[in-house]
Amino acid sequence: MIFKFIKQSSPPDIAQQMADKIASLAKTNGRISWFLSGGSCIPIEASAANLLNESLARDITGFLIDERFGQLCNADSNFHQLQAAGFPGYKLRVVPVLEGLDINQTTQKYDKVIRDLTVSSSYKIGVFGIGADGHIAGILPNSPALLSTDYVTSYDGVYYQQITTTEKTLRAIDETIVYAAGPSKHTALNNLREKLLVKDQPAQLLKLIPQVTIYNDLVEGDLL
Rounded to whole angstroms, how far apart are CA atoms 212 and 210? Predict the structure, then answer.
């Protein structure tokens, strides 16, 4: 496992490095699956996508790591927020989660999408944020998502009905970039350097991914 903390919190610089990494992977691996997060990662992901050469972008497909269930194009939707941030859908396709189905049908359909891509994709790279409470994706501390054996699950969260990828999906990801900056994230970053129970800090699941790079404003160096 390669687990690096890089003390770099400038969104434009991170977006450039993210774009360079994804472009390099696309050149050498062919079909790339790019797992996209919501929250503070959205503007960085949108900027990185706009920096990609259009010919390379044809070999990259975006998949949401989690989504907030609701009507199509509802303001809380991560897909809608990516579009609003200027993610260039004209050159890089993102597979939507919400299609007007009920939450159970939506969850089952997206589970099949993720299950199929683990076979068809040559390389899977993720982008994650870390919540102040230590959550990643839609996996909150002590939530039912931690018990799921599927690729995708759903449950009633604190503020939303959550649809989220799970530990099973994280185990299928080859590499991830993490962005966590600001005083509210410092406790979570320090906790990530320790061995906590996943139920207390779901971000510990990142340690299942073979290569992790965490851009942050607190810590520099490798996880030992």
Answer: 7
* Residue 153 near residue 168, CB atoms below 8 Å: no
pLDDT tens across the length of the chain (224 residues): 899 999 999 999 999 999 999 999 988 887 899 999 999 999 999 999 999 998 888 889 999 999 999 887 788 899 999 999 999 988 899 999 999 999 999 999 999 999 999 888 899 999 999 999 999 999 999 999 999 999 999 999 888 899 999 999 999 999 999 999 999 999 999 999 999 999 999 999 999 999 999 999 998 998 76
Please give the Cα distance from 140 to 199 (Å, whole number).
Answer: 8
The answer to whether the beta carbons of residues 32 and 59 sit under 8 Å apart is yes
Distance CA 13, CA 20 (A): 11
Q: pTM of the predicted model, to two decimals?
A: 0.94
> Which DSSP letter does residue 132 get?
T
| Domains of the chain, CATH where assigned | 10-209 (3.40.50.1360)
